[in-house]
Amino acid sequence: MEEPAEETVAGRSELGDAGEERAHEMSATDGEDSRVPAAPDVTYDATLLEQHQSETTAGGEGGGERGARTSGTAKEKAVRFKEEVTGLEEDPPIARGEEDKKEKEEEEKDEWMDILGTGDLKKKVVRDGGGVETRPTPLSRVRIRTKGQLDNGAVVDRHSSIPFTLGDGDVLQAWDLSVSLMEVGELALVRTSPRFAYGRQGRTPDIPANASITYELELLDVQPPVDYATVTEQELTTLV
């Protein structure tokens, strides 16, 4: 009877050791549970998604009509799974189209310079010129090439070379204001309202009243302002 008693004591000792180890493990586990849970591993979830899609497709291939229905909804399930994991929803095609249109309008808006800030006179550079230092100053003698187009497509004011003194009021205000911001060799489009073109009167017979015009302007040459203190009589006659 004594030997079984020893075995029982030994058994209790072993159970006691195991209990202590179990208690130690539970204590460690309790410590981990009290921490803030980490964010889900997106890479791991993506792997689960691939496995889920593979199993769904495999079931669909062997299930006839039922399998076809399951395969047909696999993409929808994948999208829902992605939304649950990432918290993001895919943009519908209409929304993306509207965003693309808005971005295009913004880019086009950035290309046009609103010279006066009123929308009446805008300039867009088609070809760069020789640099800011080549821009004309007030009363510079400039030479430009022009080609205008009405809203109906009719071509007006087509000149291969027309000289004038910048800011002297000899030409359309649209030209004066736009050319002052151009560089030698620059090619630009200029949109002008009637206010800075031919106004309410128009010009008979080719330009109607209140006509907006889009001009193609090229700055060919710039000469410094005339120094009237040193100009000769012949040069003055030529200028006049």
Keywords:
240 residues; alpha+beta; 6-stranded antiparallel β-sheet; 45% helix; elongated
Short description:
The protein has seven helices and six strands; from the N terminus they run H-H-H-H-H-E-E-E-E-H-E-E-H. With 240 residues, it is an alpha+beta fold.
List the helices and strands and how they pair.
Blueprint: H1 2-33, H2 42-61, H3 64-72, H4 74-86, H5 93-111, E1 112-114, E2 121-127, E3 141-150, E4 155-165, H6 173-179, E5 187-192, E6 213-223, H7 233-239
Antiparallel strand pairs: 1-2, 2-5, 3-4, 3-6, 5-6
Domain PPIase FKBP-type: 139-223
Region (Disordered): 1-110
GO cellular component, one term: cytosol
Protein architecture, described:
The chain is of the alpha+beta class and 240 residues long. 45% of the residues lie in helices and 20% in strands. The protein is built from seven helices and six strands. The protein has helices at 2-33, 42-61, 64-72, 74-86, 93-111, 173-179, 233-239, and strands at 112-114, 121-127, 141-150, 155-165, 187-192, 213-223. It has a six-stranded antiparallel β-sheet with strand order 1-2-5-6-3-4. β3 and β4 form a beta hairpin. It is elongated. The termini are far apart. This is peptidylprolyl isomerase. Residues 19-35, 63-85 have a biased composition (Basic and acidic residues). InterPro entries: FKBP4/5/8-like (IPR050754), PPIase_dom_sf (IPR046357), PPIase_FKBP_dom (IPR001179). Residues 139-223 form the PPIase FKBP-type domain. Residues 1-110 are annotated as: Disordered.
